[in-house]
Amino acid sequence: ATPMSVMVGVGKAAEAGVLIRNGEALQTASKITTMILDKTGTITEGEPKVTDVLLTKNYSRKEVLMLAASLEAGSEHPLAMAIVDSAKAQGIDTKKVDGFRSIAGKGVQASCEGKALLFGNEKLMKDKGIVIEQYIEKAQEFAQEAKTPMYFAINNTLAAIISVADPIKSDSIAAIARLQKNGIRIVMLTGDNRLTAQAIAQKVGIKEFVAEVMPEDKANKVAELQEEGEIVGMTGDGINDAPALAHANVGFAIGTGTDVAIESADITLMRGSLHGLADAIAVSKATLANIK
Length: 292
Ligand code: ADP
Ligand code: MG
Known about the structure:
single chain; alpha/beta; Rossmann fold; seven-stranded mixed beta sheet; elongated; binds adenosine-5'-diphosphate; binds magnesium ion; Copper-exporting P-type ATPase
């Protein structure tokens, strides 16, 4: 494309809230054959809320929430915000914790008032030898309702399963359908568990998804699809998505997402809506058509 037509295209896209950082990305966008979509914060709002607190030991709901929120106060994960907000809404004050540690893709740990706390997914509990077998089925029920269940252990014993739900953005279904109409293959990637991922994918009409992806493996998935000959677009909002955004043929960041994601991407969707993807592709097509 000529520099002039690219400039016009960049301006048109900006009107739709799509910020294009480089002209090359604009030209590649119309050639995308596969679009990878992150789940949390990309397809969904990224603002999960606590829906269920299932107590599994003789701790009160209040004590469980106090300890869980004290632990999560040290985490920046959207799931952590849900726990902290829920405690706050119920007037529960958090306490200081020691030895806070975040275990990427799995959860968090610390100690509080002499109690060892562990909060996260099935993988984390298995790594730490916490017995959860009796409750896996219950967690799976939550997951099938598109909720994310997390296990909370106090002193190495399961004390609760806390579930959160993250609403799907109101226009994600329509925006994904638009991409599919353009013949684009859609793959959803998430660190969340398989059942929750499946429930969300089904709701938004996505057939292909990879769940329980460790943060470092998102970029590997991009590379894998590229090796299959796909021109890969990647859309994400999190720190975890940054390497994949940089690796993709075109990286799209959600404007409400983390700075790291925005800096790693070629294009930013300022309105946070996935309609920006089909808008960018349409502008890209028009730009290329202009110079023929
Ligand atoms: P994603 O952002 O795609 O959900 P992550 O890799 O950040 O993926 O997290 C994967 C899983 O690890 C979460 O679904 C959750 O079960 C667990 N996890 C991560 N961070 C936390 C946290 N701060 N508290 C509890 N669980 C967590
Ligand atoms: Mg995300």
